[in-house]
Amino acid sequence: xxxxxxxxxxxxxxxxxxxxxKVKSVTLxxxxxxxxPGARHFWRENLRRIQYANPALPIEVSYPREPCLPKLEIKxxxxxxxxxxxxxxxxxxxxxxxxxxxxxx
Length: 105
What we know:
By secondary structure, the protein is of the alpha+beta class. The protein is 39% helix and 21% strand. The protein has three helices and four strands. Helix 2 crosses helix 3.
């Protein structure tokens, strides 16, 4: 029962969508010393759904010790990189921005 509940949470909800094949990788950068509750929630909840829906997509979470602004970086197959700050954003806003930017390419 517990496994079925976990799978149901991964298969539904915000972020449980197949991203464009043009997206080659996603990197989330969070600092250990920066408060970013929206980015941390996105990491725990939405990023797992995105990874489950896109198993071949490399997703990296960078967690440097030195303070830095939290950001999300999307790399595309045409070698372009789209990066945006996630400071002050809620997890659903971060997820929607990621999906919008991935769909535009």
